[in-house]
């Protein structure tokens, strides 16, 4: 096999007879995600927002999401939770919701000036948390991890 191609998946890697929860890649990924989320929650609390609100602001400001459905898909959250979250953000003057004229079922979302100002502060917060948790990692290790996580995500879409 050429050296630039990954070794094919081996079913032995995920043999239920050898499963140890605390050593499971899925468990470790979940723990890592929860640890990062907790740190972000602590950092954004000084801005008087939650991690979920920060994620919405980043998704909207980056153009990654522009509707309630987009946010639900990107954040893997049910529409009811997203709607309640957006209601709180709208009351705080961070976002605006507008029904589309061509399809009244679709709610377009946009940031208010206050939402833009808050979203502009978030990359520094997220980078601070990432720098703390990835202390001691090389740039190559982070790129490798980014590539692997991207592959895990892509494997789910097929």
Give the SSE map.
Layout: H1 25-44, H2 51-62, H3 68-75, H4 79-91, E1 95-99, E2 107-111, H5 113-133, H6 139-156
Antiparallel strand pairs: 1-2
Helix pairs in contact: 1-5, 2-5
Protein name: HTH marR-type domain-containing protein
Pfam families: MarR
Keywords: DNA-binding, Transcription, Transcription regulation
Tell me about this structure.
With 158 residues, the protein is mainly α. The chain has one domain: Winged helix-like DNA-binding domain superfamily/Winged helix DNA-binding domain (Arc Repressor Mutant, subunit A). The chain is 58% helix and 6% strand. It has a two-stranded antiparallel sheet with strand order 1-2. The longest helix has 21 residues, at 113-133. The protein is globular and about 55 Å long. The two termini are 24 Å apart. 15% of the residues are buried. The model has no long low-confidence stretch (mean pLDDT 91).
In short:
The protein is mainly alpha-helical and 158 residues long. 58% of the residues lie in helices and 6% in strands.
Relevant terms:
mainly alpha, Arc Repressor Mutant, subunit A, two-stranded antiparallel ribbon, DNA-binding, transcription
Rounded to the nearest angstrom, the distance between the terminal CA atoms is 24 Å
- The side-by-side strand order for the widest beta sheet comes to 1-2
Number of helices: 6
Strand content: 5-15%
Please name the CATH architecture: Orthogonal Bundle
CATH homology group: Winged helix-like DNA-binding domain superfamily/Winged helix DNA-binding domain
For the record, the CATH class is Mainly Alpha
Overall domain count? 1
The largest sheet is:
2 strands, antiparallel
